[in-house]
Amino acid sequence: LKGTKVIGSAEAGVTYKGSGSKIANYALQFVGNPYVYGGTSLTNGADCSGFVQYVYDHFGIPLCHDADVMRNYGVSVSLSEASPGDLVCYNGHVGIYIGGGKIVHAYNERAGITVSGVGIQQIVSVRRLLK
Asked: If pLDDT is split at 50, 70 and 90, which confidence band does 30 have?
């Protein structure tokens, strides 16, 4: 919702101009685009953290380009409490929860940016950045 506060992000006091569903829907438009290690382009290729970083950046939310650091942003929620737009964090990997037990993420060179079930790896944490 407009004016929603970002909690525990790199930039305290940033307000968000959308909803978690808008983040998820925006991210979904890049499904099928390539995975590029170290990449930060939503169209020409990104790795997992680059993908998440630039999706959130589109909404004015600055994040770093490091999946392991992202798992410390916001507040922890259980998987059963996950909402679209939450980060699902794994060891060295991150995706954006879209609902229904699925994430959108830049997976690997073979799959590219894709939708997968949350069970692709053991989940380290689920992080909510929006109040």
From this structure: very high
Sorting pLDDT into bands at 50, 70 and 90, what band is 120? very high
Question: Residue 4 has what pLDDT?
Answer: 46
| Catalytic residue (one of 58, 64, 65, 105) | 105
Q: Establish whether 48 is a catalytic residue.
A: yes
What tokens were used for 101?
A: 């037990």
On whether the CB atoms of residues 8 and 14 are closer than 8 A, the answer is no
Selection from 53, 85, 82 nearest residue 69 by Cα: 53
CA-based nearest residue to 37, from 62, 71, 9, 67: 67
Catalytic residue (choose from 48, 64, 65, 89): 48
Annotated catalytic, 93? yes
6: CB partners within 8 A, 6+ apart: 14, 15, 16, 61, 74, 129, 130, 131
